[in-house]
Amino acid sequence: MRIDILTVLPELIEQSFEHSIIKRAKEKKVAEVHLHNIRDYSTDKHKKVDDYAFSGGAGMVMTIQPIETAISKLCSERNYDEIIYTSPDGETFKQSMANVMSSYTNIIILCGHYKGIDQRIRDNIVTKEISIGDYVLTGGELAAAVISDAIIRLIPGAMSDETSALTDSFQDNLLAPPVYTRPADYKGWKVPDILLTGNTQKIEEWRFEQAYERTRRLRPDLLED
Ligand code: ADE
């Protein structure tokens, strides 16, 4: 899978693709992430990428030209499954969305900044708008990093233990059960006895009960879906 991220601040998220599972996914060539600085595509002599909003109002608006030029170039090189714009007014990002997108071949993620982008880009170029939650970030870069991370780790081959993505929180609309490691007794804090029995069937049942109970207590809304 290839992800092209268009931003005015690539430095802000560069490092988020250089560690752990995402780094390994890139090394194993199951994922590629390309960061593009929108400014590089500006034909303005000062490399401007924003301008005042028509009819005034606070804040600058990202102009069409550099974004349209960058996306047209990318689209002339390959087909994209989705051209995503990160925005607080998009559809809320969920694990189910990450699952679907992890099967895509190419996506573009356009990061908003300032007061947003000219509406005509949203109307004519963007195919999907995604929010990572009901709060406003300074720009879409952190949202693009979150979305990319959630997608890449699901691509087959990205994780060393193929089954571990299946036991994540949300994968069955349930939170993940608690996990423990050695020692079995730390100053009297004991690991639940069941986990030391080696009875895999009973342990699986216990894990499911724990996941269900945790979900009922912390996120009952997930059980209603
Ligand atoms: N840009 C600013 N806030 C955002 C959010 N909550 N989600 C996605 N992109 C954003």
Strand content: 15-25%
The Cα radius of gyration reads 22 Å
CATH topology of the largest domain: Alpha/beta knot
The shape is elongated
Q: Strand-and-helix sequence, N→C?
A: EHEEEHEHEHEHEEHH
How many structural domains are formed by the residues?
A: 2
- Helix coverage percent: 25-40%
Number of strands: 9
Assign the CATH class of the largest domain: Alpha Beta
How many strands, what sense, and barrel or not for the largest sheet? 5 strands, parallel
Enumerate the distinct ligands: adenine
Structural class: alpha/beta
Task: Give the N-to-C terminal Cα separation.
Answer: 30 Å
Fourth-tier CATH superfamily name of the largest domain: SPOUT methyltransferase, trefoil knot domain
Mean pLDDT: 95
Summed up, the helix count is 7
- The largest sheet has its strands arranged as 2-1-6-5-7
Could you state the oligomeric state of the chains shown?
single chain
Explain what you see.
With about 220 residues, the chain is of the alpha/beta class. It has two domains: about 1-150, Alpha/beta knot (3-Layer(aba) Sandwich); about 170-225, tRNA(m1g37)methyltransferase, domain 2 (Trp Operon Repressor, Chain A), CATH 1.10.1270. The chain has seven helices and nine strands, in the order βαβββαβαβαβαββαα. The protein has a five-stranded parallel sheet with strand order 2-1-6-5-7. The chain has a two-stranded antiparallel sheet with strand order 3-4. A hairpin with a 7-residue loop joins β3 and β4 (about 60). The protein is elongated and about 70 Å long. The protein binds adenine (ADE).
